[in-house]
Amino acid sequence: MYVSFDRARYCVRHLNGTHEIGCQSSMRGNSGRMYMIDNETEFSSYLKDSKTIDSSNSFIIVLNVELFNSEYVDKLMNRLDSKLNGLVIYLKSNLSRPKDFSQDDQCPNHRRSYYLNQTETVNWNSKGTGLFFRSFPFPIVILDEKDDYERLDKFYRQFYNTQSSPTCGLEVKAFQSAAHTSKTCMRRNEISHSLLDAVDGFCDPVGGLNIYSKLPDSLTLVPKQRQPKSVVLILATTDNFQMFLKAQGTTGGAQQPATALITFLALA
């Protein structure tokens, strides 16, 4: 019996000048025995259950979004080691969200700060997990639709049995061809385009749009010649970054655009 979930958000592989971050599956997908963990009690019991862990060579853990943070992910990776073949994070309804979560660092942008030699003393994003900047050797996906969670839960409760075989299994396909560094991957793009005439490359550059606007002429005086240093530009960041994307449609990211909007409203 097979049940497909085609609305999942998947963790994306990102590259920079020195290494890669994010996550992905193998080319044929990652598969493993399904194990569902809904709360801290079930989490602790699973880590102590050597019999269950030893019963399979690979697991895909289905984890409540409330447990998706660095602490629990690290515990799973340390306990299962190479047996951890993927994570499926679930929300119980479309409107439910964790009490607090941030994929960013506790001190955002500290890696690119002008003061790189200074110690991080102010962690103003106290709920930051830093998960966005880590590299995982397995895929991570999120199911955020209520009916998807209900189908998954029903399937698991109906067929999962620790005493019988076969048991419930999952397969996650989220293969991405980007690897190594941005420079290396873009060079591979050029080679594939020139030799193979390929339309799709190994990776895409991260980019965006600059939006420019000015006050209406009715609110401004337009002199024949502007005086030096008489023009004021108000610039604000309106982009965001996100750890998970949907195959189709738009996805929200970290709430950086709200900061820019508040700044403009305050100046107005």
UniProtKB/TrEMBL annotation:
GO terms for biological process: Notch receptor processing; Notch signaling pathway; protein processing. Signal peptide: none annotated. Keywords: Glycoprotein, Membrane, Notch signaling pathway, Signal, Transmembrane, Transmembrane helix. It is a single-pass type I membrane protein. Pfam families: Ncstrn_small (PF18266). GO terms for cellular component: plasma membrane. It comes from the Eukaryota. Its main location: membrane. It is found in: Membrane. Belongs to the nicastrin family. This is Nicastrin.
